[in-house]
Amino acid sequence: MMSESEHSPAYVGRSWYKNFQYQEGRDSPSEARNVLLIISGLIAAVTFQAGVNPPGGVWQDNDNGHVAGTAIYASQQAAFYLFLIFNTMALSTSLLLVLYLTHRFPFYVEIWVAIIGMGVTYGSAIFAVTPGHSVRFRYVMLAAAVPWLPRLLLQLFWRFKAKLCKYFCLRCSFLLRSNLLS
């Protein structure tokens, strides 16, 4: 029999929410991977489209000090800067997720080629619609690299872990012996 508190709106809201969360015994890893692929694909599509067609559109003429084909939003320099940096970071993260979730799938090389092509297209599009004076592209490139760096560093660590441990253990044991002798 259910207690009265289980019928309260707050309890029903929590139980409803928990029903849609990932549960290890109920949900299979392949279902979770499929959901993550769909979500990361949607994020990639939205962020790519936002970069190619920035909010507010592009100027259609060369009047009043603006250049046709450049983003109208770029006239608000700080806001446009933040938009470009975080949109690029979101796109880069979603593309990284797609690569990790499709690792060892058939046509994996083709997925890599498509993602590289998408990244180059995105970069050339934001370069084309952004006035040269409004953005330092090194920050946008850094934003694109941020999601990749932790994974790259972890992979390098795991690849060279034995060598690192051997180097540091030998070094530590040498230092310990020299301290004991003195």
UniProtKB/TrEMBL annotation:
Keyword Membrane: yes
Record's GO cellular component terms: plasma membrane
Chief location: membrane
Transmembrane portions of the chain: 35-52, 78-100, 107-127, 139-158
Residues annotated as domain PGG: 30-128
Entry annotated with the keyword rRNA-binding: no
Pfam family, one: PGG
Subcellular location: Membrane
Keywords: ANK repeat, Membrane, Repeat, Transmembrane, Transmembrane helix
Record's bilayer topology term: Multi-pass membrane protein
PANTHER family for this protein: PGG DOMAIN-CONTAINING PROTEIN, PROTEIN PHOSPHATASE 1 REGULATORY SUBUNIT
Name listed for the protein in its UniProt record: PGG domain-containing protein
Source species: Vitis rotundifolia (Muscadine grape)
